Amino acid sequence: MEKIELGEIGGLSCPPRIGVLKQRMLDEPRYLSIEQAKIVTDYYRANPGKKRNIQRAEALALTLRRIEIRIDPMELIVGNRSAGVRAGVVSPEAGISWVDAEMENLPERPQDKFQVRAEDITTFRNEILPFWKGKSLEDMVKARIGDEIAAIGKVAKINQTDHSQGHICPDTRRWLAIGPKALRDELTERERVAAPGKRDFFRGMVIALQGAIDFIERYAALARELASREAETARRGNLEEIARVCAKIAKEAPSTFREAVQSMWFLFVLLHAESNASSFSPGRADQYLYPYYRLDLREGRLDRQGALEIAEALWLKFNQIVYLRNSSSARYFAGFPIGFNVAIGGLGADGEDAANELSYLFLKAQAHIGLPQPNLSARLSEKSSEDFVRECSRVIGLGSGMPQIFNDEGVIPALMARGISREHAIDYAIVGCVELTTHGNALGWSDAAMFNMVKALELTLNHGDCLLTGKRIGLDLGSLEEYRNYEELEAALKAQMDHFITRMIKACDVVDALHAEILPSPFLSASIDGCADKALDVTAGGARYNLSGIQAIQPANLADSLAAIKKCIYDDHVFSATEALAALRKDWKDQERLRQLVINKVPKYGNDVEWVDAIAARWVDYFAGKMAEFTNARGGPYHTGLYTVSAHVPMGQNVGASMDGRKAKDPLADGGMSAMYGRDRNGPTALLRSVSRISSMEGSNGTLLNMKFLPEFFRTEEGVAKFSAFLRTFVKLRINHVQFNVIRREDLLAAKSRPQEWRGLTVRVAGYTAYFTELANDLQDEIIARTSYGEA
Amino acid sequence: MEGTIIDIKRFTLHDGPGIRSTLFLKGCSLRCAWCQNPEGLDAALRLWHLERQCIKCRSCEATCPVDALRVGDEQDAFVIVNHDRCTACGECVEACPTGALAFDGRRISAAEAAATLLRDREFYLQSGGGITISGGDPLVQHEFALEVLGACRKEDIHTAIETCLFGDWQVLEGFIPLVDLFIVDLKIADETMHEEYTHRPNGQIWLNYALLADRGVDLLTRIPLIPGITATESNIHALAVSISRTRPDARVELMNFNPLAVHKYELMNRSVEFFAGMSPLREAEVETLMRVVEAEGLTVVREQKAQRRVQEAGR
Fold this sequence. Notes:
- The structure holds 2 protein chains of 2 kinds.
- Chain A is α/β, with parallel strands linked by helices.
- Helix content of chain A is 50%, strand content 8%.
- In chain A, strands 4-5-6-16-15-19 form a 6-stranded mixed beta sheet.
- In chain A, α4 (52-66) runs parallel beside α9, α7 runs antiparallel to α21 and α9 runs antiparallel to α10 (233-249).
- Chain A is globular.
- By secondary structure, chain B is α/β, with parallel strands linked by helices.
- Helix content of chain B is 30%, strand content 20%.
- In chain B, strands 7-1-2-8-9-10-11-12-13 form a 9-stranded mixed beta sheet. A two-stranded antiparallel ribbon of chain B has the order 3-6.
- In chain B, α2 packs across α4 (142-154) and α8 (233-246) runs parallel beside α10 (283-294).
- Chain B is globular and about 65 Å long.
């Protein structure tokens, strides 16, 4: 490992160019964009009857040749999938009926607003929408299994029904190592020697790659043209350099840091152009970009300040692609997180700490930029240096919610337990918010569904009837009044969960298979190791690893509710089952005394109380054990995630009053591993000890723990040192993930009431960072309510 | 044995090095007018009624065996406790669903207290932290405190106590083998003024300070900065002179006035008149007093500001 010049990195400043570009980006309004939708629709109309993967490849290539492109003369790194920044791109193949229904509301909806041009509404309704009726993924899902998805929706929410697959970490290393042309030529050769039935598969990939090459060359041409008209010397020089870099990397492998960063960024633009999906992750960029950086420095082509400027230019680019969700989904995943997840530090292939100078440079970029993207993740292990842990602590203390922290000591064994080789497990990356993946060779399908265990308990307590609507949606196994002891109740809950799990898995399998049918992804398949060798599209199981993740929601509320039932009804007879059930049915109306009793007199998960924590751990184990019984449509395992993103708010709205004292429709606990907000009263060390009782081995799809600290904590070097020790203990405790909001409550309240003054304020929502002022009111309130730590 | 404590707080950050847990004991020999933990003054448990948490459910009404509660009669408080009658039996506390009726502390065995303090052992090891016994003052329930300290020492955990040093030397001396760090509070140099504001003379305190210093223990000397009382240049100077005469290499920490305790006084229905118009000293004023201490050759414990990196995040 080369020596890390910490002192020099510490002194680097934020280049003025970056400040200007950042301001311009934030000032530009977000628009709905139907440009690509129009190109794609025209293509399909003119080319019926071709194989779907060829249609997908040709439509993509056509888009890449036609879509309007733009270069800002001050940009160092160029490229976007739309002319405007942060545009809401519409993808007709995946599903647009919701766009039709919600188009007029986009500028006004509570979460993730977009401007809409009047002429786009007309074009969309007249030329795009009619063509896709019944043909899109969304419509096909509805036709095949829509009723079932709706029937189980309050317990098991099935995802991936109206958009392409994301949450993928492509093989960026290979893309950089050989360049687009060599990749295209290799696939052309494979097409030539392939069995006749497989040739079309490779043909699709070759078509997509040729489109990619043409797209990058268009940027070279545009830069040349702009340079010829540019009078100002520095800008002209920059444009000429953009032209040179793009012309080269359109075909060849990059050889400098700037070329490598530009080439990598184009890979991600291209993936988004093909799939318009949530989250393609750069993964371990500090590792694979390091050789270029080191060489440039050694040969004197670049200094650290110059490298930081390039990194920060990339950081801005990560904020220019956002993901348009329907209004329901925008509530589950508020703040249009797109999940450019960069994972720095962690163990290398040799099992030693792999943090390098770029890891620190990226932290520096994060400290300067402080925007929601990239989703910066730091991997810590017992071998992490004190310097690295401290620098992470300092940047966390700045308050942008990043980096979030992952624990190699927990994650690597958890992945290996799912059949992943040690070599690939140790090279793990993060996709989306907190979902775990291997690097460049997996389709993790990490958000297959969310399973609401709290709702399952509600149905179990009440004859299978929903407390909110009175409708029977679950199995009638009895009611709280009829279970004679706690064990009978638990047995009934298991039966209720089993029933919904079986139905959920069937639905997930149908959706999964429909993706392969409707949305084969040739460019993505060329970027994932395994697909070419298997001659299988990534959506059909081409990747080396094929997993499906289901989130178990929410251990805290389930444990607190069961603890209250066990202690108050079965053990201590504080009140009767009849009283309790009546209180739940009436949403605690006129039963405040009972509600306060369960809140204040029963221990809660998150307070280092073994027996309550054990309930949470046991049910997570049970759920994970069930997942292990199933194989997905691509032949890989189902496994468990313990995170909700921001879904604890809308999922809570589906749940009636619960025995933990929660009122009907109130949010569930945030995060996934977190305690119910306001119920963890023994401080952050007690919370970590509680969380550590849930086995890290079970959360192999990803786990999420939110904590909130006061900024004062980070004011002194002593505070930073104590925070670092706190993180090291977290590593020892084998908890897989933790993230921090560092902001004063008063500031959040001020930002809520005077949003215009706080436009750049970012907060950790749940697995990702978003602009606080762009979040809906209920989510803002929920973030304000979370417990914060700092002063003793 | 059992002791009476206010509480055990985990993740404390200002009671010694590293991440710590602090046991706050009830009972103190001094009666400082500015006391930050007034619930620690008396060793006996006292019943509180926290009006804000009360849901007026009347669950407590019938529980009191000595008729010490008046419920719903008065305008300004729903529940009124007659402290002369209350025997602290706990029946009403048990019945109260919200915790609005609560004691200002609890009884706990030394073994259980030690077990709770040792829960965060891993955090202490990683941070160079440990446990602290504070109060109140640990010298009051010294037998209990020593038993807890002994149990923690057995587990190789760093121990500290925070004391005002008022008590018999023999009692204080008993702590020396079990304590790694003594955090001692000195307040007022002038004997008459000390008695006026703390209700006790300071002669025994200085004697204990000298004897303790003589034994070479790790010592951190703290001075609370109470505007107009302890935080005068003449008082700080006089304290610094005495400290440096006793322990020329002493480390001294000046603790700025913290207005948060006023809230507790209100909860306890104690007069807050003393605090009227008081606010924390400005940074420059603290700095001036620090210089006074340093002029006597003493080391002042200063916060080392975190290395601030350029920041645009936030607004």
